[in-house]
Records
---
Amino acid sequence: MTEAVKREGGWNPLAAIASEELGIRSFVESGKVTTDVQLVRISSVERTLERAYDFGLLIGHTVSRAEHPNTKPSKLACRSEQDQIRAAAKEMIRLR
């Protein structure tokens, strides 16, 4: 799964979220238990999953819009969508 994510270009933001929230610096196993195993708080896992989910929503919305370039939504709907995405992005930044 991680290879597919890396190829799609979404890996760097997800790795950054894991680093910031969980302190994970690398996903390469060293073979040492002291390096490869880490205890984390449940609240940290919850925050990490929420941030990754929000990131996925933003990327999914962007990809969906790019896949349908000939669709002409009303300006009102488009502005509403843009406002929702901006609000979500601001909220994600604020939560950091």
Note: Residues 2-95 form one domain.
---
Amino acid sequence: MSATIIVDALWGDSGKGKVCAQQSIRHDAELAVRAGVGTNAGASVTTDDGRLIKARQLPTGWLNPGTRVAVGSGVLVDPEVFAGELDRFDLADRVLVDRRCAVITPEHIAAERADAHLMATVGSTGTGNGPARADFVLRRAGQAGDHPELAPYAGDVAVEVNRVAASDRLVIIEGSQGTLLSLAFSADYPCATSDNCTSAAAMDDVGLNWRLATDVIMVVKAMPSRVGEGPLPYEISAAEAQRRGIAEHGVVTGRPRRKADRLDLELLAYATMLNGPTKIALTFIDHFDPSMRGARDAAAITPEVRQLIGRVEAVTGAPVTLLDTGHRLGDVIELAA
């Protein structure tokens, strides 16, 4: 029995896509499955040869040639985005979308962009996910199995996820956004997304039997960021982020990511309670300590980073098993559990 859930502890943009790709390659995963809301969150991975991969619909596990990819039934699908990634990444022979996924239409996108509350107050990405989710709840949305562009790739992802996990082949479930953006758990409502973003929500999105889950990797960004509205503890100015060389931009919208100077340990403890991590991936270490940029050996870990690891482990009760030290896929240090 083997399924690993990858979940973001805070507000997203923590490098879940890189962790998914790295784990798929290292463990030769059989299947990587996208959980989460839909196309309102993106993942970016830079390969060691400098190729930048950006995805909004499909999980990045396909970077391992032997890993098949799928989209769980709880995830909204935009046929145009799906087709673009299918073609760009050449995945037609190893992709599955659940036939029950609700479909995002151009009308959903137009409705979201015309909604002043969503765009100005909430800080929505304008990708149509909110209106599509509302139509799904009201049982008005179309489904992937009935859509001409999606039907050839449609099937029952829940059956496949549980079959593979029960056969002791690894399934990786890649969540989206972050725990503190969860619709029902965020303290910042209405500045939240349109569903929950916890480990349990990810399992629900893909139909995984909880008995088959073996690990929850909670991704913790060493210097958190947030796109859109809502509070960000210990936020620094955009000018300060630029001065330090740690400015970031969102994958989906290109908007600047607001940056924090350090972790809020109380919020990290809350995220731990909700997600139950068994392992921690500590990411963007090079923003926290630029001297570690690109490091790939544990001998390079500085005293400051070791102190940070200790604080994170003390709060989460889980071992830090992965350090992300730079933008390339191989810029990681693996640590023993």
Note: Residues 221 and 283 are 5 Å apart (CA to CA).
---
Amino acid sequence: MREYELEKARVRRSFDLAASSYDEHARLQRIVREEMLSRLEWLKLSPKVVVDLGCGTGAALRALRKRFARARLLGLDISRGMLEEAKRHQPWLRKPDLVCADMERLPLRDASVDLLFSSLTLQWSNEPERVFREARRVLRPGGVFLFATLGPDTLHELRDAWRVADPGHTHVNLFYDMHDLGDALVRAGLRDPVMDVERIRLDYPDVQSIMRSLKGIGAHNGTLGRARGLTGKGRLGRMRAAYEAHRNAEGMLPVSYEVIHGQAWGGEAGRYVVDAQGEVRIPLGSLRR
């Protein structure tokens, strides 16, 4: 969908510039990462190859190394700046491999990965289904894809404030709905998808702190339809005034996040067949356990 389309060069540049400040501002990322790591307890995996898709500064890689000490770890990210930060924080022994790559075109062999882990990266893809097809391709039968991404209710306060201040222009990224992502998982041929939503609210004293935090993690508006040029003082002032309507009883300004958690499994080749109308046909023989 065109309104969701991101300018990848801008996204990459934003993350390169934010690499050194990322960990300082990554409050949401820490919360979501810890939740994802806790969900691994349910899976009882002993993977040989683990890939962190969108590894950023490497925090999840370090946690995955502690959990899966014998596994080969690989971190992929589109930002070289983020990978340089991840490299700085690597352990001395059993360092993960770090590769600059686009998640829509993974430089990995077919059926070569046991665990594909991706925390708050998928929202930076123009084609989530393409990422899912790549996940389906690289996962071994029985391998699992565990991910978290952002849903459409994310940053709704900021979006509302900009709608008042500058109607007709896009100032906040748009995000895919959980049901659309679930349908895309099935079309891609991933098996037994499970999805749920977690709602997280972070509080800030003022709009300036919110904007500083978003800039600090590289979360700029990268949509092709975004408002161009400099944001004038008048529009920025109107946005700040509009955001004040959301100030809560504790005297803070909330920032809401809709976090979509997903899990799906790799399967046998040919398990799912998608027809020309996009409907999924599952052979009866594949339903036997």
Note: The longest helix spans residues 27-39.
---
Amino acid sequence: MSSPLSFPVSCHSTCCFIDCQLYQFHYINENKTWTEAQQYCRENHTDLATVTNMKDMKRLINISAGYQREAWIGLNSKPEFNRTWFWSLSGAEFNESETNWKEGEPTDRGIKGSENCGIVYQDLRWGDQGCHWNESFLCYDEEKTWLKAQSYCREKHTDLISGTKQLQDGEVKKLMDFTNSKAYFGLFRDNCRWSDGNSFSFRHWNNDFNNPESNNKVILIKENKTWEEALTYCRGHHHDLVTITNMEDQIWIQEKVKNASTPFVWIGLHYIWSLRFWVWVSDEEVSYENWASPGQTDDCDVFGTMETGGEHKWLEKKGSQTFNFICSKY
């Protein structure tokens, strides 16, 4: 059918979006939430775009070239979606009865939900591992992260090895004899679904998504302080109150705030009452917005917060209130 710009996003912010008809993609240069974009595409075309392979991916990049803005696609994740294993190669169906897990695997050790990529050992038994580690992979013998390994294989060959038939090939055993002990293969899991109901497993995530290095740029402080106190704390102990300039920032910051002990957390937004506009403490322009309601107010003592639950929208709060807060480390 068709496909999307592969980028995992919250479905509640507003941005441009991509939809599709049979073998066609259309860039809709309007600001809508994911749900509004889905409704628009279904009413005027077919659905939000679904991607099935790198060829579709390149077509999407071409039609969106020049816009330099994020755009919604048909991939979405909801709390009721369980994490499911997929093969990297679209069309290779994952069958739980044909797995070859090492004893005790998958372990899902560490941070809950962090081991989402498949690793194969020298005995061809499987394990799960965090996707950010550098490992050899079945396609080439250079160590890379799972995402980089997938990208390399798709560019130079077809994909990471996917499906039990490929893994049972005698050549795989010969290749594994030359590795240190284990290598990435095409097994991964997530809890995302396509809007049009397709089960295509193709993903092309931005490298910062679920990247611990990105998540380490910010820190949640579980102390209750006023906005001014939070600002002073961040500047004294870290760098500053956090600035959010795009959806990528929003996504990995909202994962942090889920562990807060208050219903809202302070972020680095403050309102310039005399000029009637919001600014970031970092002096960054407020180009990306995620307000629960338009951020206009006649109050001179309000600052920005993010919800710690629900849709993680931004809301204005009186500066005298006390909440947890998010600091940027650099």
Note: Helices lie at 34-44, 54-64, 146-156, 164-167, 170-176, 212-215, 227-237, 247-257.
